[in-house]
Amino acid sequence: MRAVLQRVQRGSVTVDGNVIGEIQKGIMVLFGMLESDDQNVIEYMLDKVINMRIFEDEAGKMNLSLLDIKGELLIVPNFTLYGDARKGRRPGYSAGASPEKARVLFEQLVEYAKTLPVEKVATGEFQADMAVEIINDGPVTILLDSEKKF
Fold first, then answer.
1. Among the four residues 20, 27, 126, 148, which has the most C-beta atoms within 10 Å?
2. Which domains does the chain have, with CATH numbers?
3. Looking at beta carbons, which pairs linking 42-49 to residues 24 or more positions away fall under 8 Å?
4. CA quadruple 41, 46, 47, 49: dihedral positive or negative?
5. 148: left (phi over 0), alpha (psi -120 to 50) or beta
6. Using CA atoms, how far apart are residues 148 and 25, in angstroms rounded to an integer?
7. Number of neighbouring beta carbons within 10 Å of residue 58
8. Residue-wise pLDDT tens digits, 83-126
């Protein structure tokens, strides 16, 4: 599983002109899935996301987590995180999970996220054409990979 975290002042996801998910201060995270991902990977990745110390404390140091600031979480599925652009000009997506497997994993990820002590969990829509709008705070952007490739 791969994730791109962005610390945001606010964020939203719109599908067909309707806002389907929105948050205030917190983290917007794009998730891409692998065929081999499972519940253990979901728990590992969400633990990293909600405990990543990327929010400033009273001294201005990035020392606080999403939980510490009582922030909100916006989860957006994104198969393009496994795009391979090393050859040619068109990325290949064969490394990522099949749409069927990725849908199940995304649903499990969202279900698990909603059991965590996060103020609010909002989501995008799997396989939808989404407009994701954020106000990146910092900017702070972190890459995570469950296989620890980066």
1. 27
2. 2-145 (3.50.80.10)
3. 42/1, 42/105, 42/108, 42/109, 42/112, 43/112, 44/146, 45/1, 45/3, 45/109, 45/144, 45/146, 46/109, 46/112, 46/113, 46/116, 48/3, 48/144, 49/3, 49/5, 49/73, 49/144
4. positive
5. left
6. 27
7. 7
8. 999 999 999 999 999 999 999 999 999 999 999 999 999 999 99
Phi and psi torsions of 121, nearest 5°:
-120, 120
The structure tokens listed for 29 are: 């995270």
More confident residue, 150 or 8: 8
Whole-number pLDDT of residue 150 = 81
